[in-house]
Amino acid sequence: MNTLLLILFITAVILAEVIPLYRNELKREAAVLIFLGVITMVYGIYYINNKYTASLVKVMFSIFNIQ
Amino acid sequence: MKTGKNKVSVRQLLFVYTIMVSSPATRFLTKSSAARAAQAGWISPVLCIIPFTALIWMIDSLVKKYGNKSMAEIISIILGRYLGFAVNTAYLLWALWLTAMYTRYYAIRLTNSIYPNINDNILIILTLIPIAYMLRSGLTVIARMSEVLLPFIGAMLVMLSIFLLGKVRLDNVLPVYFNDIIPVFNASLGLTSILCYLFLMFFLGDRLVNLKSLKSFGYIALYVNISSLMLLTFITIGVMGSTVTERAPMPVLTAVKQISLMDTIENIEAIIVAIWIFADFTLISTLFIITLNIMKSMFKLSDTKPLINVLAILVYFMSMGISANKFEIEEFSNKLLMPLNISLGLLFPCILFILSKLKKGRNEKKQPILPGNK
User: Fold this and answer.
1) pLDDT (tens digit, 9 = 90+) per residue, B304-317?
2) Is B328 exposed, middle or buried (0-12, 13-18, 19+ CB in 10 A)?
3) Could B323 and A39 be called an inter-chain contact, meaning their C-beta atoms sit closer than 8 Å?
4) CA–CA distance from A26 to each of A19, A33, B162 (Å)?
5) Residue B372: pLDDT band with limits 50, 70, 90
6) Number of H helices and number of E strands within chain A?
7) What would the pLDDT profile of A25-54 be if each residue is shown by its tens digit?
8) Strands B208-209 and B260-261
9) B318–A14 CB contact, under 8 Å
10) Backbone phi and psi for residue B261, each to the nearest 5 degrees, phi listed first
11) Which of B95, B24, B91 is nearest to B315 (CA)?
């Protein structure tokens, strides 16, 4: 349910910003916005489903091999 | 200095920088200086003068050579299209990471000091909404706000220091021997890693005017930052001692809590909390603008306003998901953030500066000798 709400919310935000961009033929801006929106959505879904364990710091520690 | 719409002067940018740096420095510097250099920790800001002066000199040289361009564009010119894009992506991720991290730190600081029963996510939402709203007006609002409030913040710092001066115990800050040089150097790395954010500020280079005075205002900013941070560290370690400063969750706040004037004026730590809130607000919004400006330069966008809301949502999720608890994020700051900041904020500018000089030399060699030229 939370995931669905998040998807709807982010889609609404993206649409609200993208429509004026398409009207003004700012396609590059629209593409970047959609790309950023997709990243936000993916990370948001991940965070909502792993609320208590999600940790980017742990990911960074594993990338740089720090205990 | 008159500035156009959406443009700020170098002086205003350095005002923003001074406020921006004060927030992580007050949280991190006193603890790390006390932990690494004990009673000599208060000297550590002095050693930052050398790398910081070098950084100002290198940035000034780059900016003078390439004119009113953002640092992302300068990187692309020097390193070429593809390598430049890769390096700019690294800076974009760094700026985004810092935005999310300092947003989380802001919430942690408030829950630890004045709002212990409020969830971090409420505080983060309540910060990001006004920031997203304010950013639509651009950098000029933050610059003017900082220009007005920095003198007040400075005056507050001096006033609090005078109030605390009587409680400073000399045996907490002395003796300082030659043996302390290595610990003081280690302690100075912490502040250097924070002062390196100056390089990030020049990703806003295309919005700057009066670049000629960068060096002179840069050195004034250096003097103001180093002296104020030195004073803050001296007072904190002097009042509480290095052992307590090292272990206290918020040493500056704990020191300020001890102020008592004639047993009537007490509990004036609210001043410090108000300064922190303003400094964090400036820090987060400036990093937000830097992130947007890097994206603007990388993808050649005409306007970044449509990205603000989506980026604010991403920053919210990142700040909540950056660490499961306070200890993880502090561990990250101590172990990984410092070398990362120094690499991207100090070492890479050195490489960029050398490459720009080499490129200049190569271009001069390639120039055809015309009949009129000797």
Assistant:
1) 888 899 999 999 99
2) middle
3) no
4) 10, 11, 56
5) very low
6) 3, 0
7) 888 888 999 999 999 999 999 888 887 777
8) unpaired
9) no
10) -105, 115
11) B95
Q: How far is B260 from chain A (nearest CA, A)?
A: 40
Which amino acid is it at B72? A
CA atoms lying within 13 Å on the CB side of residue B75: 27
Q: How do B260-261 and B265-266 pair as beta strands?
A: antiparallel
Whether residue A26 and residue B303 make contact (CB cut-off 8 A), yes or no, is yes
Smallest CA–CA distance, residue B99 to chain A, in Å, is 14
**Helix or strand or coil: residue B250?**
coil
Which residue type sits at B224? V
- Residue B105's nearest CA partner among B249, B293, B309, B221 is B249
**In whole angstroms, what is the distance from residue B341 CA to residue B330 CA?**
15
Count of beta carbons in the 10 Å neighbourhood of residue B211:
16
The count of other CB atoms within 10 Å of the CB of residue B71 is 27
Give CA–CA dist B179/B64, Å, rounded.
41
Task: Report the amino acid identity of residue B313.
Answer: I
> Phi/psi of residue B37, each to 5°?
-125, 10
Interaxial angle between packed helices B81-113 and B269-299, expressed in degrees from 0 to 180 and rounded to the nearest 10? 160
Across the interface, do B306 and A18 touch by the CB < 8 Å criterion? yes
Q: Output the DSSP codes for B37-66.
A: HGGGGGGHHHHTHHHHHHHHHHHHHHHHHH
Closest CA to A57 of B210, B197, B265, B325: B325
Q: What are phi and psi of B260, to 5 degrees?
A: -145, 115
> Which one-letter amino acid corresponds to residue B74?
I
Could you tell me if A54 and A47 are in contact, meaning their C-beta atoms sit under 8 angstroms apart?
A: yes
Q: How would you classify the pairing of strands B260-261 and B8-9? A: unpaired
Collapse the DSSP code of B265 into the 3-class scheme (helix H, G, I; strand E, B; otherwise coil) and give the result.
strand
User: 0.80 exceeded by the pTM?
Assistant: yes
Distance separating alpha carbons of residues B200 and B93, to the nearest angstrom: 12
Amino acid at A9: F
Alpha-carbon distance of B45 to B189, in angstroms, equals: 9
Let me know: does B269 contact B253? Beta carbons within 8 Å.
Answer: yes
Test mutation, B294, B308, B317, B336, chain A, max A CBs within 10 A = B317
